[in-house]
Each structure stands twice: as C-alpha cells, then as structure tokens.
Design the sequence.
C-alpha cells in the first residue's frame, strides 16, 4: 500500500516540476498557434522561420523563432514584452509592432507557449 503512495507522490512531484513557472502554465499552445497564423505568420512565416511573404521588404528580417539557441537565452517575460510592447521597447526593430492593444494578455501567453512548444522547442536556460 505504502509503495502506491510513494509512486503517486513521485508522479505528482514530477508533473509539478515539469510545469514550474514557464509559459506552459500560463498559455495554451494550440490556441497560440491560431493567433500566430493569423497575426504573425505574414512576417515570421507559417513555420516561424522568419520567412513570411512580408519579410522580403523588411530589414532587419523578422526573427527566426525556431532558433533554439537564440530563444533559450531569452526569458518568457522578455518574449511576452516584445510581443506586447513591440521591438522598439527592447531595442529591436520597430517593424515588430506592439500587439498589446490588439491581443489580450492571455492571447500573448498562448503565443509564447506556442513558440516554446512548437517553434523553438526550447525553454529559457540561465
Ligand atoms: C510586420 C512584420 C511582423 C509581424 C506581423 C510580427 N513580427 Fe515579430 N518581429 C518582426 C521583426 C522585424 C522583428 C525584429 C528583428 C530585429 O530587430 O532583429 C521581430 C521580432 C520578434 C521577436 C523577438 C525575437 C527574439 O527572440 O529576439 C518575437 C518574439 C516576435 N517578433 C514575435 C512575434 C509574434 C508572436 C507576432 C504576432 C503576434 C509577431 N512577431 C508579428 C516582424 C514582425
């Protein structure tokens, strides 16, 4: 009987640990995908590689959001801020517009979760 409790407790701890304070707990990647396709793909490309149809006219180019090396140096809060307040707020291109007035806080966390889970497939590493 005791073993059952130990196993249950271990499973519980592991799943809590995996979810610890990252975009997955705040956002829904599946919903984020829809927002990304509607709002971001024109520049960042449907697969997030920075090669959308509107990218040709931009300099600097939209970031490649599948770049795990880049994205793992950035916190979820940083990514949230770029999307919400725009590139200019963090020293990037102003062509990355602020979406805070268009998308809700939850929409933005959903997109952050989508970027983490499906585009860069990475988490922030200190
Ligand atoms: C009009 C084109 C355009 C659209 C639309 C656009 N972006 Fe961007 N995005 C850019 C450009 C340009 C940059 C900055 C490139 C630079 O300064 O190096 C950028 C930068 C970013 C960055 C910073 C990357 C990093 O980690 O350093 C993120 C994250 C991002 N965009 C996400 C999004 C999301 C999510 C959306 C949709 C809500 C979106 N962008 C819509 C053009 C666009």
Sequence:
């Amino acid at each position: 009987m005791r073993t059952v409790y130990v196993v249950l407790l271990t499973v519980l701890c592991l799943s809590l640990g995996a979810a610890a304070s990252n975009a997955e707990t705040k956002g829904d990647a599946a919903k984020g995908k829809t927002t990304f396709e509607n709002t971001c793909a024109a520049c960042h490309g449907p697969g997030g590689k920075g090669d959308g149809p509107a990218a040709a006219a931009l300099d600097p180019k939209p970031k490649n959001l599948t770049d795990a090396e880049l994205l793992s140096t950035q916190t979820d809060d940083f990514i949230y801020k770029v999307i919400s307040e725009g590139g200019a707020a963090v020293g990037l291109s102003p062509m990355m517009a602020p979406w805070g007035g268009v998308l809700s806080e939850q929409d933005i966390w959903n997109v952050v979760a989508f970027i983490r889970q499906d585009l860069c497939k990475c988490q922030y590493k200190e």
